[in-house]
Write a structure and sequence with these properties.
Layout (H helix, E strand, L loop, with lengths): L1 H28 L9 E7 L10 E4 L2 E12 L4 E8 L10 E6 L6 E6 L12 E2 L1 E3 L4 H20 L2
Parallel strand pairs: 1-7, 2-6, 5-8
Antiparallel strand pairs: 1-4, 2-3, 3-4, 5-6
Length: 157
């Protein structure tokens, strides 16, 4: 009986060591977007939908950064998103940022459409041209209402 207890203790220690090693490995793989080579930009939107901290920032569908904060500007009542981009990505000053959704049920992210300007935004700069989140239920409702009103106009003579 004594040998069984020692075996269980040793196996327990091995499991704890393996779990600790996995935890340390996983912590090293997490990229919170706060790397030393990154820089921050801001963008103001009329609506951010369900955009949250940690969402992707993408250019041409490729992740190039993360959303580090979303807050309300109490003077203008616009939502301000703080974006942290990889240091090797240069964004032209006339670029557009828009809130996009990954599929019908997917999460929101910021899509940057690069402009053609030769000047690039510096760290701490603001993307001036933005497009807020589109509410899919509003679009569907408008389509149904427009379809219903055009049918009722055409049927009466």
């Amino acid at each position: 009986m004594r040998g069984g207890a020692i075996l269980e203790t040793v196996l327990g220690l091995i499991v704890l060591i393996a779990a600790g090693a996995f935890f340390i490995y996983a912590q090293g793989q997490v990229d919170d977007g706060s790397g030393a080579d990154g820089y921050k930009l801001t963008a103001r939107f009329s609506s951010v939908g369900d955009l949250t901290r940690g969402a992707d920032v993408r250019v041409a569908g490729v992740p190039v950064g993360t959303v580090t904060a979303v807050r309300l500007d109490q003077e203008t009542y616009f939502a301000e998103a703080e974006l942290e981009l990889s240091g090797d990505i240069e964004i032209p000053t006339d670029s557009t940022a828009k809130i996009a959704t990954a599929g019908l049920l997917g999460g929101s992210f910021v899509e940057i459409e690069p402009g053609g300007d030769m000047d690039v935004l510096a760290a701490g700069g603001e993307i001036s041209y933005t497009q807020g989140a589109v509410d899919m239920f509003d679009l569907i409702g408008q389509a149904v209402m427009n379809r219903g009103s055009s049918q009722s106009e055409g049927s009466g003579s």
